Amino acid sequence: PVIYAITPTYARPVQKAELTRLSHTFMLVQNLHWIIVEDADDKTPLVANLLRKSDIPHTHLVAPTPQEWKRKEKEPNWKKPRGVLQRNKALEWLRNELSYDVTTDQGVVYFADDDNSYSMEIFDEMRKIKKVGVWPVGLVGGLMVEKPILNKTTHKVAGFNSGWRPERPFPIDMAGFAINLGLLVDHPEAQFSLTVEGGYQESEILRHLVTREELEPLADYCTKVYVWHTRTEAPKLSGEAQLRKKGMRSDQDMEV
Ligand code: UGA
Ligand code: MN
Q1: Shortest-distance Cα residue to atom 25 of ligand 1
Q2: What percent of the chain has pLDDT above 70?
Q3: 201 and 84 in contact (C-beta within 8 Å)?
Q4: Residue 68, by phi and psi: left (phi above 0), alpha (psi -120 to 50) or beta?
Q5: How many angstroms separate the CA atoms of 210 and 206, rounded?
Q6: Looking at residues 23-45, what average pLDDT do you find?
Q7: 24: how many CB neighbours lie within 10 A of its CB?
Q8: What share of the chain is helix, strand, coil (3-state, %, to 5)?
Q9: Which one of the listed residues 202, 204, 233, 255 is annotated catalytic?
Q10: Which pLDDT score, from 0 to 100, does residue 73 have?
Q11: Is ligand 1 within 6 A of the CB of residue 37?
């Protein structure tokens, strides 16, 4: 099956570094189609150039988050969801634009944020998915690893170890599951929402698609970590701010 990796991305100082790292991971993966959706009004040259250089089969889309849904500088980061309209745009493209024959072709959809760290193995794992596959995610939710807990005899998902809002229907991170494309095409109501509570995006899409019992545990019965919810520190750019006050910049005529 083809893996459709959906990546929301937005302009900030580390964007090119993040996307370079991610593209170099994806270059190692066979049969991957990268759907990159910019949180912007128009496609930017930075992203367009990077995609062109990478040689990865891709689709470049845009979907701006309205100003009132953008996180303010000091606002806690669980207050407003990120990547929602961008992921929905990609889902819309998959459902309406991709010429896809559910009976003859197969696909798997994965929401791959631009700042996480991905091991090659995770992509091999997700090709086994029939409906929705799940696996552990490192460095998330205040834990070293968040993971599904399996029933020892049936090997089915019996629960989750999440300590943060464990009452969620699916207390897992976006990086911890992938979905069969046919299932998404058959359930056009399955999407993300700006108005659900913090931490409920994953549950919001999954509730239309599977029950907990149907989840397919991967990564060696959820004993291996192949993806990490890393977050990149925002660089301190005080010198740059000084320069700009004087009408100068260190990156004149350079893309950083
Ligand atoms: C956690 C989850 O891992 C995300 O999948 C989830 O979207 C997010 O929480 C949430 O609460 O909405 P976190 O690391 O806090 O992730 O989120 P980011 O990595 O900052 O953002 C997720 C994705 O959205 C990234 O690919 C990022 O580039 C993109 N994004 C972020 C935008 O497109 N626009 C923004 O204004 C901010
Ligand atoms: Mn992140």
Answers
A1: 113
A2: 98
A3: yes
A4: alpha
A5: 6
A6: 98
A7: 11
A8: 30, 20, 50
A9: 202
A10: 79
A11: no
Q: Is 104 helix (H, G, I), strand (E, B) or coil?
A: coil
Dihedral sign (CA 180, 185, 190, 192): positive
Q: Is the CB of 116 within 6 Å of ligand 1?
A: no
Which helix (H) or strand (E) covers residue 54, if one does?
A: helix 45-54
Nearest residue to 154 (alpha-carbon basis) of 55, 66, 221:
221
ipTM over 0.95: yes
pLDDT value, residue 76? 79
Whole-angstrom distance, CA of residue 199 vs CA of residue 81: 8
* Nearest atom within ligand 1 for CA of residue 71: 36
Quick: pLDDT tens for 203-245: 999 999 999 999 999 999 999 999 999 999 999 999 999 999 9
18 as an active site residue: the answer is: no
At 132, list the tokens: 């929705």
Residue 40: burial class (beta carbons within 10 Å; 0-12, 13-18, 19+) = middle
Q: Nearest C-alpha to atom 26 of ligand 1 is from which residue?
A: 113
Give the atom of ligand 1 at the shortest distance from the alpha carbon of 199.
11
Cβ–ligand 1 contact at 141 (below 6 Å): no
pLDDT at 67: 93
Q: What is the pLDDT of residues 132-184, one digit of tens each?
A: 999 999 999 999 999 999 999 999 999 999 999 999 999 999 999 999 999 99
| Choice from 78, 79, 82 to test ligand 1 binding pocket (greatest atom count within 8 A of CB) | 82
Task: Tell how far the Cα of 25 is from the centroid of ligand 1, in angstroms.
Answer: 19
